Amino acid sequence: MQSRDNHDPQTAAVEGPREPAADSELNILRNVFRMLPSGVTVQDEQGRFVLMNDAAAAQLGVATAAQTTSYSKEFDQRCDTAIELLRAGRAAVAEESVTRGQVKQVFLTAHRPVRIADCNLLLSSSADITEQKAFEDQLFRSAYYDELTGLPTRRVIEHRVNSLMPRDETPNRFALAFLDIDNFKHINDYYGHATGDALLVEITKRLGLDLRESDMLSRISGDEFLMLLNPIRSQEEVAEYIDFMLQRLRAPFFIDGSEIFASTSVGVSLYPEHGRGYDVLRHNADIAMYRVKNNGKGTAVFFDDGMEREAAARMKIEQSLRLAILEKRFCCAFQTKVDIRTREIQGIEALVRLRDDEGVIQAPGTFINLAVELGLIDDLTHLVLAEIVKSIDLINETFGPDTTISINVAAKQAGNPEFMRPFAQALEATGFPGRFMVEVTEDAFVAKTHFQDEILPIFRKLGVGISIDDFGIGYSSLSALADITADEIKIDRSFITDIHKRPRSQGILRAIESLSEALGMTVIAEGIESYEELAYLQAATKIRYAQGFYFSMPIFLEDLIKPAIPTTSETRANVPSRPVQETRHAYSRANGYRR
User: What is the pTM of this model?
Assistant: First the structure.
């Protein structure tokens, strides 16, 4: 490149005498050119600057347009660009980045070769696009990177996976893992969303510790991640890595003074064994992950063809469930709560059942969890209430006009004011809200939801009772229980089964009984199925009320027009001890909910 001689770019094109008027116009022109907001330069075939205004001087790192004795990297690059473009005789547009200390600017520069007065010159103009580039980068990151964790989004990993699938018959193997944080909603509810977000960031850090440059981790939704492991040699290699990763995630997280434990369920699909497209691989990894969820959580499972058949069966149940709600094919059964001293009926619990296409009654274990997951549980709860209101005369005639009527509400519903407020209004509209007992699991109280502060006062005002269902298998937080103002506690059946043979369960039962008595709550023992269980409760505890198959099977509405179970203590007291009529399993509670 030619030497950079001291050269006045403002005067190089001006030679010879000028008339005073022309000089005045030229001075105006010079000042206008110098103060243009866009950087403008004119260079000759040797790259020397013939003209340069102040904006261009600042961009190229020159003190002033008239002083070009010190050269910056940008200055030298512009000289080289002029030589190259003028030799090629072509125009060009390019982005130029300039960094001065901590400040970075981006310019869009257009170069155009021109011929003036038999001279080949390069005319260049630059516009500052720093803010525009920053906005474009922000839009790009919003579209392709997660704001909270900084991880690539779904579309990025999808593009990456698809790019790894060649059309030849000898593709490289890779694994796609679907990760879901277990019980993340409970963590959010209990600790708050800020802590939940911080937990996601910490989990992201742990997941990314041993990833290779060819691997990728993506956050695809709130608590769901996709991990690409590429390349892989065998399924055993992937299993070993994921097992190590899960062990790392089991260590506690310390966030804002709280020690938080968070397990993760992982489903894995392999390419090409489990699919030859991103959508198929992701779907199969998702299916495998749900197998983990259904089998206890916190582990990893590889996809197999049997899972696909299970998923198809689940989809069939989902479709039939939606259709059953439209066709109102759900029915109510009632199970009595009995005073174990007098055998009088103290209340009834409404249980929802599904009548399938062939008229067979389905227990709730086949549909309740799915109804919660699909957001259909609200419709089911209102259907149960409607059936109760429609049949209240039969209920009164069979069980007595003073018996309480219990309705189960899932924890997800209990913490949702958008459901609970209309539900409270529906209870009030029945005209007898004081007869209802709303049963919720203990996590509705312990988790930081709206139930305790906003919903509970509404029910208290209506006279609706509150029951803690399945007590002992959820959070069981004694500090939280002290703040609960429920009317009754229903001890889960797992503590009652064979209570006469289990000293440890007996001790727990006595503790719950004493605590409930201190807090003024009635205790209900669930799942009484044998005379021995009943005899122990009568002899060794102060518990007055229980329910279970020993007293009565669930009774359906259509059966109420037939002779029902006696409601007086005299007739019921003469019923002898008898074996269980039906195993409890058929009507077991599915993961904490019974309808």
Answer: 0.53
Are 450 and 419 in contact by the 8 Å Cβ rule? The answer is: no
Which of the following CATH numbers is that of domain 149-303: 1.10.240.10, 3.30.70.270, 3.30.230.10, 3.30.700.20? 3.30.70.270
Q: In this structure, are residues 466 and 437 in contact, taking their beta carbons and an 8 Å threshold?
A: yes
CA 149, CA 218: separation in Å to the nearest integer?
Answer: 9
Please enumerate in sequence order all residues whose Cβ is within 8 A of that of 406, keeping only pairs 6 or more positions apart, or say none: 337, 347, 348, 349, 350, 436, 437, 438, 439, 467
Query: CB neighbours of 585 closer than 8 A, spacing ≥ 6?
Result: none
CATH of domain 328-560: 3.20.20.450
**Res 235 pLDDT > 80:** yes
CB 176 within 8 A of CB 161: yes
In sequence order, the 6+-apart residues with CB closer than 8 A to the CB of 554 are 333, 334, 335, 351, 353, 587
Closest by alpha carbon to 536, among 505, 573, 557? Answer: 505
Ramachandran angles phi, psi of 316, nearest 5°: -65, -40
Tell me the residue type at 547: Q
**Residues 407, 384 contacting (CB under 8 angstroms):** yes
Token duo for residue 577: 């001890």
Q: Hey, which bits of 79-118 come out as E strands?
A: 92-100, 103-116
How is residue 225 written in tokens? 């991640």
Q: The tokens of 288 are what?
A: 């495998």
* Per-residue model confidence as pLDDT tens digits over 325-347: 888 788 888 999 999 999 999 99
Query: Taking 50 as the threshold, does the pLDDT of residue 528 lie above it?
Result: yes
In degrees and rounded to multiples of 5, residue 67 shows phi and psi of -125, 110
